[in-house]
């Protein structure tokens, strides 16, 4: 392990490219690598491109295990000179910009959420224009608002978000399309629904209940939900989210017809339906409901998503339904709990 004077920690490993791994001298950069998506995406990208070709960065230092898995820099995304230095040094040709504050935290920290979510994107779009890399930026179902049709929400419809997070995502979508149209920046984006995975926990979101419920079901056999029982929201298992993300980035440029952000759908359910599914495996699991401020955000979002454009343009298709996702989550968390 080398520690450089800027405080970066860089790991180099001998990598034997094999199987699905693609030989390349170019690198992939993940900004916000310790978050819910980032930590799993880095693992998957390293499997595809080789450990040393995927550069992970985050404002926080990760675990030793993560540090040992490939190159890492401690980095504030708003420090653009440093981002640019890493991009040049490693000949980065793809950037995944995942650093953001989610819906609930953004309402608490309005200005810093706007700064991180918006200036982070704008600065990175500028770098993409100069350095000519392909950029992935996540949008969200939060771009929709209370006036949007909530069932099977279309790709092109009313977008009047009522949360700081949603406003930043909507503005971000417009910037992405602008940089593509004006400067030919190859930027690609997905409107993620709530994401559910067992490897990393979300933080500060409204859809987080659908992850916490599994951990509590296994540990305590009971869960107090901060959304009401019939709050239906679009959700996606992390396995599918990674497939969608990498699938969109791997699509040829002419397949990517939408440069703002694509609707992608997978599963829709309510807390009550999820609890019933969990009960098929843990019969004595109980749930109670104590909606808090996050209920308002959820009530302004779609119940289900029409993702026909993503299906048609770059062959998007989810693999996990509620049953499959629940089985997989429970068996992995159970194994993790037994292991510790
Ligand atoms: C959140 O709940 O804030 C996020 C999202 C839907 O973008 N998971």
Structural description of this entry:
By secondary structure, the protein is of the alpha/beta class. The strands form 4 sheets. The chain has a 7-stranded parallel sheet with strand order 5-4-3-6-7-8-12, with helices on both faces. The protein has a 3-stranded mixed sheet with strand order 9-11-13. A two-stranded antiparallel ribbon has the order 1-2. Strand 1 and strand 2 form a beta hairpin. It contains 12 helices and 14 strands. Helix 5 runs parallel beside helix 6 (164-183), helix 7 packs parallel to helix 9 and helix 7 (209-219) packs across helix 12 (322-339). The longest helix has 22 residues, at 110-131. The chain has a single domain (6-339), classed as Rossmann fold (3-Layer(aba) Sandwich), CATH 3.40.50.720. The protein binds 2-amino-3-ketobutyric acid. 2-amino-3-ketobutyric acid binds next to loops. Residues 102-103, 140-142, 165, 192, 194, 205-207 line the site of 2-amino-3-ketobutyric acid.
Q: Concise description?
A:
The protein is of the alpha/beta class. It contains twelve helices and 14 strands.
- Termini separation (Å)? 27 Å
**Count of beta strands:** 14
* The CATH class: Alpha Beta
One letter per element, helices H and strands E, the order comes to EEEHEHEHEHHEHEEHEEHEEHEHHH
Mean pLDDT: 93
What name goes with the CATH superfamily? NAD(P)-binding Rossmann-like Domain
The assigned structural class equals: alpha/beta
Strand neighbour order, sheet with most strands: 5-4-3-6-7-8-12
- Output the CATH topology: Rossmann fold
Radius of gyration: 20 Å
Determine the number of helices (DSSP H or I, runs of at least 4 residues): 12
- The share of residues in helices is 40-55%
Q: Please name the CATH architecture.
A: 3-Layer(aba) Sandwich
What coarse outline follows from CA principal-axis ratios?
globular
State the oligomer: single chain
User: How many distinct folded domains?
Assistant: 1
- Beta content: 15-25%
Major sheet, described briefly? 7 strands, parallel
What ligands are attached or bound here?
Answer: 2-amino-3-ketobutyric acid
Low-confidence stretches: 1-24
């Amino acid at each position: 392990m080398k520690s450089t004077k800027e405080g970066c920690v860089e790991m180099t490993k001998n990598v034997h490219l094999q199987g699905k791994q693609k030989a390349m001298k170019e690198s992939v950069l993940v900004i916000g690598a310790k978050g819910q998506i980032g930590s799993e995406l880095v693992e998957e990208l390293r499997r595809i491109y080789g450990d040393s070709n995927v550069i992970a960065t985050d404002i926080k230092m990760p675990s030793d295990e993560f540090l040992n898995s490939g190159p890492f820099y401690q980095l504030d995304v708003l420090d653009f000179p440093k981002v640019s230095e890493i991009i040049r040094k490693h000949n980065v040709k793809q950037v995944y910009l995942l650093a953001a504050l989610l819906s609930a935290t953004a309402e608490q920290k309005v200005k810093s959420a706007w700064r991180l979510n918006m200036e982070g994107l704008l600065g990175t779009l500028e770098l993409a224009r100069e350095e000519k890399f392909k950029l992935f930026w996540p949008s969200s179902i939060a771009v929709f608002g209370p006036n949007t049709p909530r069932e099977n929400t279309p790709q092109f419809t009313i977008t009047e978000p009522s949360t700081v997070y949603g406003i930043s995502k909507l503005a971000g979508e417009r910037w992405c399309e602008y940089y593509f149209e004006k400067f030919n920046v190859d930027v690609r984006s997905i409107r993620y629904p709530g994401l559910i995975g067992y490897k990393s926990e979300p933080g500060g979101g409204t859809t987080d209940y659908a992850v916490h419920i599994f951990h509590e079901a296994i540990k305590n056999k009971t869960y107090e939900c901060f959304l009401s029982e019939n709050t239906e929201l679009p959700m996606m298992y992390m396995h599918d989210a990674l497939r969608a993300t990498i699938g969109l980035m791997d699509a040829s440029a002419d397949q990517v017809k939408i440069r703002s952000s694509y609707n992608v759908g997978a599963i829709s359910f309510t807390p009550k339906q999820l609890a019933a599914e969990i009960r098929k495996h843990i019969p004595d699991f109980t749930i109670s409901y104590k909606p808090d401020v996050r209920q308002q955000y959820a009530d302004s979002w779609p119940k289900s998503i029409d993702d026909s454009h993503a299906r048609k343009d770059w062959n998007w298709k989810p693999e996990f339904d509620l049953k499959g996702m629940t089985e997989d989550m429970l068996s992995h968390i159970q194994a993790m709990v037994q292991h510790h």
